[in-house]
Each structure stands twice: as structure tokens, then as C-alpha cells.
Amino acid sequence: MNANSQTTTPPSSQTAKESDSFAVDRILVTELPPELGTVDAPDRYTVTAVFTRRPLPQELELLVAPAVDTALAKAGYAHVTLRPADRRLLIGNTNLNELEHGLASAIGAILDDIGAAAATTRSAQARDAAEFASRAAERANRVLEEVERIDFSPHHSQYS
């Protein structure tokens, strides 16, 4: 890699949202058909892209949900398939031209929506867990207070 092909923005300048977002980082050129650029190039093929981070299980579930096919169809890409494979996204039945002229943006929007939905769910789950932990702590404090009121010292009656 030469100096001109490196990015000038250091990773530390990225916001937390950018680095945590569910998105595609790049296309794996080595996974493209070797015939590209020749007369034998296929019209459509699978393009392998790399996610910006390892997808969460919930994001993977949402990515294979029927809503994704619906979103692709509404954007005019009913023939395209999206399939996760570890940290990769397999974009099936497409080509680089289609990706460049709108499909990549449509996929970006789909992944952004999935990431936001998963984050909302995780946030709600975190709130529920925090509320549960708070109730458990309050209950434990009430029990401790009750235990502290118990006195095992012998008491002598004043009437004996």
C-alpha cells in the first residue's frame, strides 16, 4: 500500500456511533470473479463485502428477515440477495455497476436501520435489566434492615 492510498483520518477521530455502526466497510476485490473486465465477465455475480465490525446475533436475525427482501424490492432490487457469513456480507445476483449506482446506498440504509433497531432493543433490555437489578438491590436492603433488627441478646424481665 502506498502513502497515497492510506486514509488521512485517524481512527481516534471517529465518533463512537461511526465505529459501532452496523455497516459495510469495503468490498473484497479478491473475491470478485476473475473474468471481470473481460468479454467473459458475468452479468451478475456475488460481491463479498466486509462489515465494519462483527455483527451481533440480533442484527444477523434482522438481516435474514423478510423485511430486508421487501426493502430491497421497494428500492428496485428484488433480484438481489443479502446473506451474512461471519464478518462478511454476500451480496448475490448483482454487479459493481449496480452497487455503484444505488444498490450500495440501499444496502447502507438497510444495515443502518437494522443497527438502529438492534440498538433500541439492546437499550430497552439494558433498562429492563437495570430496573430488575435496582428492585433486587432494594429487596436485599429491606431484608438486611430486617435482619439487623433481630436481637439475640438475652433479655431479663423487670418483673421477676
Describe what you observe in this structure.
Residues 1-20 are annotated as: Disordered. Residues 1-15 have a biased composition (Low complexity). With 160 residues, the chain is an alpha+beta fold. The chain has one domain. The chain contains four helices and four strands, in the order H-E-E-H-H-E-E-H. It has a four-stranded antiparallel sheet, covered by helices on one side. Helix 2 packs across helix 4 (96-148). The radius of gyration is 28 Å and the shape is rod-shaped.
SSE order and pairing:
Layout: H1 16-20, E1 24-27, E2 45-51, H2 57-63, H3 66-74, E3 81-85, E4 88-94, H4 96-148
Antiparallel strand pairs: 1-2, 2-4, 3-4
Helix pairs in contact: 2-4
Sketch the major β-sheet: 4 strands, antiparallel
User: Structural class, judged by helices and strands?
Assistant: alpha+beta
Name the beta content range. Answer: 5-15%
Number of helices: 4
The helix content, as a percent range, equals 40-55%
List low-confidence stretches: 1-18
The average pLDDT score comes to 83
| Alpha-carbon distance between the two ends | 97 Å
Total beta strands: 4
